Amino acid sequence: MTRQIPLPDNKSSTLGDFPYPYVEVVCRKCWRSGRYATVRLIEEHGADLSFMDLRRRFESTCSKTNDISRLNEVCGVSFPDMIRWKLGREPSI
């Protein structure tokens, strides 16, 4: 029996679609991590903000990617609960 993992849809996921009360943020490069209230993020950035745009906002404040000596560094920010959401699982909190 093969495990079936749902393929991502073509539609970009937005903050307004996100069903959990908190957005977990983890960076594998600078070890930044935390939880942000979904409602608060929607108030600040709007419900139509995609997670790709949210990632870019976190990247713009990253000390690693904004360091002049690390111009080729790529931000490692990810949203672990996105995977749980797409697989229909409970959030990590």
Describe what this molecule looks like in 3D.
The protein has a three-stranded antiparallel beta sheet. The protein is α+β, with helices and mostly antiparallel strands and 93 residues long. Helices cover 27% and strands 14% of the residues.
List the main descriptive attributes of the protein structure presented here:
93 residues; alpha+beta; three-stranded antiparallel β-sheet; 14% strand
Radius of gyration: 15 Å
Give a quick account of the main beta sheet: strands, pairing sense, barrel closure.
3 strands, antiparallel
Give unreliable regions as ranges. Answer: none
**Shape, please?**
globular
Distance between the termini: 31 Å
Mean pLDDT: 79
List strands and helices in order, with pairings.
Elements: E1 22-27, E2 33-37, H1 38-45, H2 51-60, E3 77-78, H3 80-86
Antiparallel strand pairs: 1-2, 1-3
